[in-house]
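Here is one chain, start to finish.
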Amino acid sequence: MLEHAAARPQAAALREKVYGIWQTLSWAELALLVRELACGLADAGLKRGDRLVVIGENRPRLYAAMLAAQALGAVPVPLYQDAASAEYLFPIQNAEVAFAIVEDQEQVDKLLELRPGCPQLARIWYDDARGLRHYDEPGLAPLDALVEAGRARAARTPGLFDAEVAAGRPDDVAAMFFTSGTTGHPKGVVHTHFSLLDRARAGADFDHLSEREEVLAYLPPAWIGQNIFSYAQWLACGYVVNCPESAATVTIDLKEIGPTYYFAPPRVFEGLLTSVTIRMEDASRPKRWMFERAMDVARRVGPALMDGQRVGMLDRLKYALGDVVVYGPLRNTLGFSRVRVAYTAGEAIGPDLFRFYRSIGINLKQLYGSTETAVFVCLQPDHEVRADTVGVPIAGVEIRVADDGEVLVRSPGLLKEYFKNPAATAEALGADGWYHTGDAGFLDASGHLKIIDRAKDVGRLRGGAHDGAMFAPKYVENKLKFFPFVKEAVAFGDGREKVCAFVNIDFDAVGNWAERRNLPYAGYADLAAKPEVLALVRDCVESVNADLAQDERLAGSQISRFLVLHKELDADDGELTRTRKVRRGPIGEKYRVLVDALYGGRSEQFVETAVTFEDGRRGSIAATLAIVDAKTFPALARAA
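Its structure:
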């Protein structure tokens, strides 16, 4: 940060949209703010090695707060802003946090609620003062007060900030990220300055990133993917990070900024395509005809052009015409008119979805990594992009596949440790320096890594026609989620004679489908129970089964029976992690009556479920769910 501030002080470092207007913070202004915040934190008692919780959306002053803590040798611990207060209890107690900087009243209320169980949480500062004027809590103050205290401390001790920065070392702890905790308490992943910046620089070199990039920071800062792209790489490259006004304005802000470097999990790309599909279904007949003809050309020609392959002159002309009338306006509508590199990660992305974006001229690629590896392990080189792999190991990374199929990684970006958890650290990090990812996969003939599933989730069927067959639940779930009508899926089958599944419909996509067929519905539960919707989902399931039958190893994973849940799976109800990963074990326990009905041969089952509403109130919803049998297919023998 100080290098950027010295070399180009007036260049934009951060932008934030406030009341519809973009406000810019230069590198020089950022450096001054960080200096004042650091001195204020030092005056409040924050010392080298202490932990500082940071909670909120992407905001310039929260970024500055993390930099200020790091300048003092303290450790920022970002937490998910949409988490319930109880979810903060373990991280705050585990990390022995005494200081917190949060965005607004919502986060203040959650921390104050926890104070009886976290007596060490002495100081809380907030960025947005709306609604907090009459709060009178010990240790609670606005961030402006911290800045003022920092100015006074800097005047009293002029060399404090520079001395603390000079005392920092590459192998000092830089940040702590808590994992999503799909099977128990989250673990605090400890990273050093070296591990984060080394991987940030490796990723930047791979895609030739520079200070000219524009990035939109709209995902949770507590997720290391967002943290790397809009924090570590931002500092390494010096590009501009743009913070949306709110989650509701992201789509508009995306169009206004026109990022050149973009990152999103597959669900975001799925949502964008669903909105395009809905709009085209509602368009006039001539527009639909033009769109369909142009997309036929794009699907046939676009990926080849993107990959630098030879394409005939006539096809080039057709694609150029399509670019003028359809692809260019579509990229502009999506906010991707200037995207040079776009990445997706976290879950498998559907081949059709992947090809759609590449066919209209968006350089969408996949990457592989995790919180423990500082994200960047494998990336897809330009002209070597495939839907079924996650790329090649990048500079500094070694990959080995263990005898049991688990992917092992050795990299400069590996975690230092799990905080206060030596047993978990020893289990994940071998004495020889190899990190056990927990993912099952293999390297193909071209050196690309292909991930099948989480190694612990890969099971075996027991009994029945497919006794001993491999069961890869995540692989099956992802194939179902490739359909625009399916939002989430949970597959069961390990140790059982067949595979059954829960399905969540995509309310927007299925709702639009129903409206076009004059099918009335009163809400999510009503729509999910419609016989026509069950038939629609059955078609999706049977398509997946036909595809699985093509692979002799996975043919036993075909879904025999399924039901459509009466509610959307929700992180607030403990069914998903904050990064929207399915918590299969807790779901199986919570809905045991439904699992038993699926395997017990029943045709329907009544269920009553506790839910958490958006305002925090608790309630319950009840429904009788239909259970549907799906057609399965004989496995195709592998060719000799």
